[in-house]
Design brief:
The protein is mainly α. It is about 75% helix and about 5% strand.
Length: about 325
């Protein structure tokens, strides 16, 4: 009984220390600048896509509706992890509270899981658009899009809730140092002093079933898409289809490959250095690349952005002319 009470006392931690980054001052500043620029570019790129889609009625269709959801996820994903990392690099404050760590892990797994399912839905959308173009609007209605989008967020939420509850009911009595730049499942399992086999089994099973289901949907969709493209008579149509789907497939390969490498494996194979690099690929690099390789290469999106920029310039020019006219007339300039 005495040993049991002592273990309970030792397992009550109030904070964790994120030790996934270098302590060398010169490297810390360099990393801070690099990740700050990357984060700002990611947020700016994805917000630009959201503005273009929301303001241009020509983009109010299923494809761009899902693309808007993807851009929103790509803003949330680095925001959840990178802001804390920037604080640690700039202020050398690597401490995160138990509650803060729990919420960070919950929201991160939520966003990552939702994006996995959303990419599968987008693959299905491309399949219908290419293989059944005449029936596309009847099959993929905006009502169905709303249901599918809500479904991806709901499944992602409950998937994250399960994983978070499994992790934060563990005992942490040997160490509170998380060998990563944010709270994640593998490093939390690595520092726990509780038996983790049953929890790992549940995590691997759930992640495997949900992840493989989304992957199978994506794979089958692209097999049918490839067959349909090869049957096209027009080389221009084939090029357009390959261009659109090739961008999405690039995103899918990077995201699925890195997330599977991180989560669908036993904790005995956990490697801090390897996981740190892999997590940066899907947590930082992929959200940055999505606007570039998937959105900004799209002619319709670029046209929408030009129209938005033109409208902003026109509004600013009118405001400037109005201010000049009021100044010349001697009237006070308001606003």
């Amino acid at each position: 009984m005495k040993d049991k009470l002592q273990r309970v006392n030792l397992s009550t931690v109030s904070e964790f220390v994120l030790v996934g980054l270098s302590d060398a001052p010169e490297v810390r500043f360099l990393l801070f600048v690099l990740f700050l620029i990357t984060y700002l570019a990611t947020v700016a790129g994805n917000i630009t896509i959201l503005v273009a889609i929301s303001t241009d009625t020509r983009l109010h269709n299923p494809m761009y509706f899902f693309l808007g959801n993807l851009s929103l996820l790509d803003i949330l994903c680095p925001t959840i992890t990178v802001l804390k990392m920037l604080e640690a690099l700039l202020l050398e404050n690597q401490v995160i509270s138990f509650t803060g760590c729990m919420f960070q892990l919950f929201f991160f797994i939520d966003v990552v899981g939702t994006e996995i399912f959303l990419l599968a839905v987008m693959a299905y959308d491309h399949y219908v658009a290419i293989c059944h173009p005449l029936q596309y609007m009847n099959i993929v209605s905006m009502k169905l899009c709303a249901h599918l989008a809500i479904g991806t967020w709901v499944v992602g939420f409950f998937n994250s809730l399960l994983h978070t509850s499994l992790i934060f009911t563990l005992f942490f009595c040997d160490s509170n140092e998380v060998d990563q730049y944010y709270c994640d499942i593998p490093p939390m399992l690595a520092i726990s002093c509780s038996p983790t086999y049953s929890r790992e089994l549940v995590i691997l099973t759930v992640a495997g079933v949900l992840g493989s289901s989304a992957f199978v949907v994506t794979l089958i969709s692209y097999i049918y898409i490839l067959l349909a493209i090869l049957c096209m008579n027009s080389s221009e149509s084939r090029y357009k289809a390959f261009s659109t789907c090739g961008s999405h497939l690039t995103v899918v390969c990077i995201f699925y490959g890195t997330t599977i490498c991180t989560y669908v494996r036993p904790s005995s194979t956990y490697s801090p250095n390897q996981d740190r690099i892999v997590s940066m690929l899907y947590g930082i690099l992929t959200p940055l690349l999505n606007p570039i390789i998937y959105s900004l290469r799209n002619k319709e999106v670029k046209s929408a952005l030009r129209r938005v920029i033109s409208q902003v310039r026109t509004a600013l020019t009118r405001q400037e002319h109005r201010a000049q006219s009021l100044a010349c007339s001697g009237a006070p300039v308001i606003g």
